[in-house]
Specification:
The chain is an alpha+beta fold. Helices cover about 15% and strands about 30% of the residues. Helix 9 packs parallel to helix 10. The radius of gyration is 27 Å and the shape is globular.
Length: about 850
């Protein structure tokens, strides 16, 4: 039998630590204290050949030619675009966008989940309007409950998020017919300028417009854009027709968008619709049963090519990767960076959180300015009145893959029951950088190094790029690729021209799996950071003091070099040297105290805090007690007006069978609290409040509450029935058929367990039921109601029990598992393949309940 997958919880201490630093003299010193000479290069460093790159000056900003919608809202604020980025009130704007499908999530839970998205750095929520969810039967519209688009958008407005509505008509989203109702498909002419089809689309758009009345940007609402169609490859004239119909219906927004893939059959006039792009680490849709087929590898290489030909290649084919001739006139925006990935029946994808970090970082280093994730929040397919509503091979169109009936978790940063995943923390760290420095990044051009990888199989050449304005900028490095171990790169030193900036001062080793960005020439509030070998996170200003937070790059000594001009003091003076008109702090150690402090000739003070990997992933920023603050919390936080809520968050099971454990993934597990050892939530600044009548230290101090911790209870299970005869796995009916998923009747031969849930189960603590199993497909029933399914990829199946409170009153919970078959034509993670002496398995190995209590402060 295959080894059971058991949950694992790890913890990293968040104890309070303060660094003791000498005070800056009250009067400026005439010169910088410290040693005069820089470090003497070693023989090894003298032999190193630097990695070279020539900086590129950005093209001038151009706004001419865009023909979008009304840009100004009633308060006078404007949203527009130029060739570099989106513009908010005429200034570069780099919002982060995350996809969340309202109809796949209970309306009562929307607000808290949108607050989680906002706390994760999301500024725009994107959502599909699946036509079939609203007009399954011709003429019978349903905008109620979870289908209430108006309520969803108004909730987004209430929590401070903007919205882009992806209004189809065809959407995909792994929905039946790509979202088209059956009656529309049966009538023919869809996705074209067929008059009958367009008449129905006009009605759809009128319905959407009624839902959004008063909620558009021009009316003071949050809806700033519409996406028209999706992955459309026909004549451009059809997209222009859809835009006209939308505007005639009253859907007038500052932005109109489309997916920039695939190429259109005819060119579209410049400026009418903004093309948005994407990248996925690996997809469920490929026909091959091998890992990383086609061109997924390219998503881990820096390139100025925007189009990714690996997306949706089951329908679109393995096409030529090329950009439109006028691409440089548009800002480089994305809408589908894979925040996770679904499993289709024939391809079971297990997400490595580092994949999400690497592909996002590479997009930014390749010129993108605003990450957009699909999906950022998972969900569950709603009930259909006539049919199930998932994509499957047995339908007439959009019939490439058999998807789960219920499950649309997508292994997203936020799961279908609100679970917080490791990549949520990774991405929040990157979003902190974009929030603080995105407007600077937006105006910077891409430069690629003189020596670049020669292709897919070149793993020895370092992958890196620079975004700069010709003088200052950010250096991006990615040494990670899904399914492949990239070796550490030794003796790395970068040389940028013109100007001859070389850093770090001593050659460094770039660890395997590393993905990061470093700044150079960065203005830190009147003090110029010549370079740093640490990743900038965010900053807070208070009076004349700016506190800047950085994340140490694991395995690389942290070094900060500042232009000496304009600086009058630095402490501690024992930690820096003077060299070439710079003061340089070398081998800076991470911690929660001040790494060092600098005083400018202007009288302003700069404080640097360098966080280690776990703490950088536990950093949050938001308002509390009337001011903006930074928190260190291993528990997820949301910021609701001036209140903060912390929720106990258990770690997911550590199934590291198809990728190597690294410092980064260890750190992701490490920010979760140990159930037996609640850790304090730390806050900075903290000098304005007291606990027990005593003033707290100036830097990070504990919030005066007891942090919530999860409680884990093992659930007893009773085998009611063993698995019967194995089903014959046939191919489906798609144009390129793959293994067909089981249907309802096949579960008559499933192994079935009854779970004995605790009699005193506290549903107010929002408990998760975690099921660790070995099998092909699992289904969960409460009484006779089918509530969840899962195509096994090695991860446990998790179900939020509070959502099913009423059903649990009336029936017992059972789990049905079909056996895993060794000979099945299915791609699985290596860990899921039965051992050679076992042809099939269906085992519920472990069940437990994890509570998720919340505290507010």
């Amino acid at each position: 039998m295959k080894r059971a997958l058991l949950p694992f919880l790890a913890a990293t201490s968040l104890a309070v630590a303060q660094a003791s630093l000498p005070a800056i003299p009250s009067s400026p010193a005439p010169q910088i204290a410290g040693t005069e000479a820089g470090a003497t290069p070693s023989a090894a460093s003298r032999a190193v050949v630097p990695l070279t790159l020539t900086l590129v000056a950005p093209a001038p900003a151009q706004t001419a030619g865009f023909a979008l919608g009304t840009a100004r809202n009633p308060s006078g604020s404007t949203i527009a675009a130029d060739n570099r980025s989106l513009l908010l009130d005429g200034q570069p704007w780099t919002p982060v966008m995350g996809e969340f499908h309202y109809a796949r999530y209970p309306a009562a839970e929307w607000r808290e989940e949108l607050l989680k998205m906002k706390a994760g750095g999301i500024a725009i929520v994107a959502t599909y309007v699946f036509w079939i969810h609203h007009e399954e039967t011709a003429g019978q519209w349903d905008w109620s409950g979870a289908r209430d688009l108006r309520h969803f958008v108004d909730t987004a407005r209430e929590v401070g998020l903007k919205v882009i509505v992806r209004c189809g008509p065809w959407c995909h989203g792994e929905v039946r017919n790509g979202g088209l109702p059956d009656w529309v498909v049966a009538r023919g002419g869809s996705r074209s300028d067929d008059p009958t089809y367009l008449a129905s689309v006009a009605t759809l758009y009128a319905q959407i417009a009624a839902q959004l009345r008063g909620l558009l940007w021009k009316d003071g609402g949050p809806v700033v854009g519409l996406q028209l169609e999706n992955e459309y490859w026909g004549p451009a004239e059809h997209l222009l027709t859809l835009k006209r119909l939308a505007r005639e219906a009253g859907l007038d927004t500052p932005l109109y968008t489309r997916t920039g893939w695939p190429a259109l059959k005819t060119p579209i006039p410049f400026g009418e619709i903004l093309p948005l792009y994407g990248v996925y680490a690996e997809g469920f849709w490929d026909r091959e049963l091998t890992s990383m087929p086609g061109s997924y590898w390219a998503g881990f290489h820096f390139s100025t090519l925007r189009t990714d030909a690996a997306i949706a290649n089951e329908a679109l084919g393995r096409r030529e990767t090329r950009d439109a001739p006028d691409i440089a006139r548009y800002p480089y925006l994305t809408c589908e960076i894979g925040g996770g990935m679904m499993s289709a029946y024939h391809r079971r994808i297990l997400v490595d959180p580092r994949d999400i970090e690497a592909t996002t970082l590479v997009k930014l280093g390749s010129g993108s300015t605003s990450p957009g994730y699909y999906m950022y929040h998972g969900g569950t397919n709603p009930e259909g009145r006539q049919t199930t509503l998932m994509e499957e091979q047995s339908t007439a169109v959009t019939n490439w893959n058999d998807m789960p009936v219920k499950n649309y978790d997508f292994q997203a940063p936020l799961g279908q029951y609100g679970q917080v995943r490791p990549q949520y923390h990774i991405l929040r760290r990157l979003h902190s950088f974009l929030h603080a420095y995105g407007p600077d990044l937006a105006g910077m051009a891409v430069a690629l190094p003189d020596k670049r990888p020669t292709g897919r199989d070149d793993v020895e050449t370092l992958r890196w790029s620079v975004r700069s304005d010709g003088v200052r900028g950010f250096l991006f490095v990615n040494n990670h690729e899904r399914g492949r171990t990239l070796p550490a790169k030794q003796g790395v030193q970068f040389l940028l021209s013109p100007g001859g900036l070389s850093f770090p001062s001593q050659p460094a080793t770039i660890p395997s799996g590393a993905a990061f960005l470093w700044p150079f020439g960065l203005d830190l509030g009147g003090v110029t950071l010549a370079y740093a070998t640490a990743q900038p996170l965010t900053y807070l200003d208070s009076g004349n003091t700016r506190t800047v937070f950085f994340a140490a790059t694991p395995g690389v000594p942290a070094e900060f070099a500042f232009a000496e001009q304009g600086i009058t003091g630095a402490t501690p003076d024992s930690r820096f040297t003077r060299h070439d008109g710079r003061i340089v702090f070398r081998d800076v150690q991470p911690g929660r105290g001040l790494a060092f402090r600098i005083q400018a000739v202007t009288g302003k003070e700069l404080q640097i805090i360098l966080l280690n990997e776990p703490d950088s992933l536990a950093l949050w920023q938001g308002p509390w007690r009337g001011r903006e603050r930074v928190f260190l919390s291993g528990q997820p936080l949301v910021f609701d007006d001036d209140q903060v809520r912390a929720t106990a968050a258990p770690s997911r099971s550590e199934t590291r069978t198809n990728f190597e454990a690294t410092t980064a993934t260890d750190s992701l597990a490490g920010i979760h609290a140990d159930p037996g050892q609640p850790e304090p939530i730390l806050v900075f600044p903290s000098e304005d409040f007291a606990a027990g009548g005593e003033h707290l230290p100036r830097l990070f101090a504990p919030v005066p509450i007891v942090a919530p911790t999860p409680q884990i209870t093992t659930v007893a299970s009773v085998l009611l029935k063993s698995a019967g005869p194995l089903r014959t796995i046939t191919l489906g009916r798609s144009p390129q058929p793959v293994a067909a998923a089981p249907v309802d009747a096949d579960f008559a031969n499933a192994a079935v367990w009854r779970l004995n849930l605790p009699a005193d189960l506290d549903l107010s603590a929002n408990p998760l039921l975690r099921l660790c199993y070995v099998g092909d497909v699992a289904r969960v029933y409460i009484g006779n109601t089918f509530v969840m399914d899962d195509y096994s990829n090695g991860e446990p199946l998790e179900i939020g029990l509070a959502r099913h409170a009423e059903q649990l009153k009336a029936g017992e919970l059972t789990v049905a598992i079909l056996p895993l078959q060794n000979s099945a034509p299915i791609l699985r993670p290596v860990s899921e393949i039965p051992t050679s002496d076992q042809s099939s398995e269906a085992v519920l190995t472990h069940a437990e309940i994890i509570t998720r209590p919340t505290v507010e402060f």
